[in-house]
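stage 2 :: seqdesign
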C-alpha cells in the first residue's frame, strides 16, 4: 500500500490510532487537501494538539534543532518542574539561546514570592545543566504574562525561527494557541502555514516573511504522575483554580495521606504546623503512624481516593524516602501533586510516593 504523507507536517498518514502522529479518519482520505487531524485542528480552529512519540523519536527530532540558528522556548509546569523538565536539552539544542517559561502561575497562592520562584527555576535549570537566558511566569490558559513573553521572544529571536519544546501536559499547546490568537499576523497566516515535507512532527507557523514558529510534539517523561492515572483522576489532582493551602498541626508519629497517591510520615521533631499546597479537590486524611500501613491497605481506592480502582491497576507501589529538614523553612515537593511546607524545620520526615516519582527539596517559596 502506498504511503501518503500529510501535506501539513509531512508525517505518514494513518487511521489506526488517534494518539499517534498522522492520524486521519478514514472518511477524510478522499478530501482534496489531505492533512492529518492535528494539522486540520490547527488550520481551522487554531488548536495545537499533542501527539505521542517514542522517546527516541522525540530525541531525534529535537536534536535537529542543534543544526539551526534559532531561539528555543522551553515550557515547564510550575507544579511539576522536575517531572516536566527535559534532561539533556542543552545538548539537543546546541548553542541556541533558551528561554524558560513556567506555566500555570495563576494557580499559585497570591502569597507566592514570584522573584524567589524565578530564582529557584534558574538555579534548578542550571543544576540540570541548562543555561537559560531568562525565566518568565505565565498562565497559558488565561493569557497572564504574555505581553512580557511576546516582547522577549521578539527581541531575542532577532528574526530567527522559534522552536517551542516541552513535555506532555505542561500546557505547550495552550501556550502556542495563545500566541496564535494574540497575533493577528500569525492568525492570518495559519491557512498558509502548511508546507509539504516539513520535518517529522513539527508544525510550522509563519511569524513573518523570513521566519517561523515551530511546534514540537510533547515528550513523554516516564517520571510524570500523569502517565499512571486515568483522565478522571488527573482532573482531581491537577489544580484548576488558585490553590487554598491547608494547615495541619502534627505531633511526631502522625501521618498524612494525600488521597492514595502519597503519604507523609512525621517521624521525629517538635509539634508544629505543616502547610499543604495541593489541588483543592484532593482529599487529605490524618492518622497515627503506627496505623498507617493498615489504614492504606483497607481504604486505598475508597476513602483514600483518588486513585480510582482503574488507576490502582497501573499505579506503581509506594516506595519511601526519609529526609531530615534543617532549621529553615522548606518545601517538600511531590511531582505532579503539590508540596508540603515545613515552616520551622528540625524534623525527620518519610515520604511515600509511587515508584519512579522523585521528590525534591527546596527553600520555601511562600
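stage 2 :: out
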Amino acid at each position: 500500500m502506498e504511503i501518503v504523507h500529510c501535506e501539513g507536517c509531512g508525517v505518514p498518514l494513518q487511521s489506526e490510532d488517534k494518539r499517534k502522529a498522522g492520524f486521519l479518519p478514514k472518511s477524510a482520505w478522499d478530501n482534496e487537501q489531505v492533512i492529518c487531524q492535528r494539522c486540520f485542528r490547527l488550520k481551522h480552529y487554531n488548536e495545537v494538539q499533542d501527539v505521542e512519540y517514542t522517546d527516541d523519536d522525540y530525541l531525534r527530532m529535537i536534536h535537529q534543532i542543534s543544526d539551526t540558528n534559532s531561539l528555543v522556548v522551553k515550557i515547564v509546569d510550575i507544579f511539576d518542574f522536575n517531572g516536566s523538565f527535559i534532561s539533556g536539552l542543552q545538548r539537543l539544542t546546541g548553542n541556541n539561546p533558551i528561554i524558560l517559561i513556567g506555566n500555570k502561575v495563576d494557580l499559585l497562592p497570591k502569597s507566592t514570592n514570584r522573584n524567589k520562584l524565578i530564582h529557584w527555576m534558574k538555579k534548578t535549570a542550571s543544576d540540570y545543566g541548562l543555561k537559560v537566558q531568562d525565566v518568565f511566569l505565565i498562565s497559558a490558559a488565561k493569557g497572564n504574562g504574555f505581553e512580557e513573553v511576546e516582547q522577549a521572544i521578539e527581541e531575542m529571536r532577532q528574526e530567527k525561527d522559534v522552536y517551542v519544546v516541552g513535555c506532555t501536559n505542561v500546557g505547550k499547546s495552550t501556550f502556542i494557541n495563545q500566541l496564535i490568537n494574540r497575533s493577528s499576523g500569525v492568525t492570518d497566516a495559519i491557512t498558509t502555514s502548511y508546507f509539504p515535507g516539513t520535518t517529522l512532527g513539527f508544525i510550522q507557523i509563519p511569524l513573518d516573511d523570513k521566519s517561523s514558529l515551530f511546534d514540537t510534539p510533547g515528550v513523554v517523561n516516564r517520571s510524570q504522575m500523569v502517565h499512571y492515572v486515568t483522565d478522571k483522576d488527573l482532573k482531581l489532582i491537577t489544580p484548576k483554580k488558585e490553590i487554598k493551602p491547608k494547615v495541619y498541626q502534627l505531633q511526631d508519629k502522625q501521618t498524612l495521606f494525600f488521597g492514595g497517591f502519597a503519604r507523609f510520615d512525621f517521624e521525629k521533631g517538635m509539634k508544629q504546623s505543616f502547610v499543604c499546597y495541593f489541588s483543592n479537590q484532593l482529599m487529605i486524611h490524618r492518622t497515627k503512624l503506627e496505623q498507617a500501613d493498615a489504614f492504606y491497605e483497607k481504604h486505598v481506592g475508597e476513602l483514600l481516593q483518588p486513585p480510582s480502582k482503574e488507576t490502582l491497576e497501573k499505579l506503581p507501589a509506594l516506595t519511601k524516602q526519609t529526609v531530615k529538614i534543617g532549621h529553615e523553612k522548606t518545601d517538600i515537593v511531590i511531582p505532579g501533586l503539590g508540596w508540603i511546607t515545613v515552616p520551622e524545620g528540625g524534623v525527620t520526615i518519610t515520604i511515600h510516593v509511587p515508584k519512579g516519582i522523585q521528590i525534591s527539596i527546596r527553600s520555601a517559596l511562600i
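stage 3 :: structure notes
- Confidence is low (pLDDT under 50) at residues 184-200.
- Residues 243-363 form one domain.
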